[in-house]
Amino acid sequence: MPDIAPSVTYVTVDVFTHERFSGNQLAVIPDASGLTDAQMQQIAAEFRYSEVTFVLPPENPENSARVRIFTPTMEVPFAGHPNVGTAFVLGNRPDIFGKTVAHKLRFEETAGLVEAELVRNADGRVTGAGISAPQGLTVGSEVAAETIAACADLETGDITVETHHPMIVSVGLPFAIAQVKNLDILARACPNKTAFAAADQTYTPAEEQFALFLYVSNPQKPWQFRARMFAPLDNVIEDPATGSASGALAAYLVSLEPESDGTYDIVVEQGVEMGRRSLISVRVVKAAGQIETVRISGDCVAVMQGVIALSFAAS
Q1: Which of 80, 102, 124, 290 has the highest Cβ tally under 10 A?
Q2: % of the chain exceeding 90 in pLDDT
Q3: What is the chain's mean pLDDT, rounded?
């Protein structure tokens, strides 16, 4: 077997925030060319962030990079904050695998091509990024309110079905979404791993794990929401910012609107209960009754950089 690089560099960023030590933590390996699948999983488990991204040369030279995303326990086909954070990290570098960094980046991922657009301040410095979801909205099965309540250690009556029943939805990564009645109920939610395991057997395919996105609407501002996301089966007790879930929720709610055409700007506030407040912006475009595009964007701030020591692979 070929030798494996003895070390790789990493960068960490906080995503969906402009304040360091808020938002969602992300580790990025800007050049993971020499790493094996097993090493990528080990590094993700070592960080214990909700995700770590590994940047590789693109298979198609017209694209910017191939990006693989790992949670502490598994590889996932797509996620929101890892793409926003990875685009931010690469946007602050002079080149990607020898090519000058462009204003727009295109990442090859398991879920499909992810297009990212860099956000700059008045001085031209990259301060964040926006990405387009790689897949259209898909709506899966309805989830019983009793199941949602059990997973979040709530009462069934805490779940409201006035706007919609709890559903499995996705724009690249599936989540169960459910609306609760008020902020006090949202604050009381606590994941029950046994209930999650039971729900996983009923509602998710073998390659996925049941994850729950709870939210509360703002009566004064109907397109602003507070949310929490739990994925204890993936060793993510709670996630402070979940772009893929926010995109799926926004797209689903827009799909329920009676108008056949329109552009909707949605803001999801998340991570407040964890002390890591995040703001996720989602723009959904609807045309002829169908969800046309879902764009997820936010600010980022750099936190750390360093070197990970590796062992050589056995011969």
Answers
A1: 80
A2: 92
A3: 95
pTM of this structure: 0.92
Distances (CA, A) of 27 to 24, 102, 192, 259: 10, 22, 27, 40
Residues 6+ apart with CB under 8 A from 258: none
Q: What pLDDT is recorded for position 136?
A: 95
Contact 148, 178 (CB under 8 A): yes
All domains of the chain in start order, with CATH: 7-132+300-309 (3.10.310.10), 138-298 (3.10.310.10)
pLDDT tier at 314, thresholds 50, 70, 90: very low
Give the count of beta carbons closer than 10 Å to the beta carbon of residue 312.
11
pLDDT beyond 90 at 273: yes
CA-CA distances (angstroms) from residue 61 to 98, 184, 226?
11, 50, 40
Q: What is the DSSP string of 87-123?
A: HHHHHTSSEETTEEPPSEEEEEETTEEEEEEEEE-TT
Of the residues 19, 51, 155, 162, only one is catalytic, namely 51
Per-residue pLDDT band at 204 (split at 50, 70, 90): confident
Beta partners for residue 21, in sequence order: none
Q: What is the pLDDT of residue 56?
A: 98
β partners of residue 52: 27, 70
**DSSP category for residue 233:** G
Q: Can 51 be counted among the known catalytic residues?
A: yes
Q: Rounded to the nearest 10 degrees, how much is the dihedral formed by the CA atoms of 253, 255, 259, 263?
A: 70
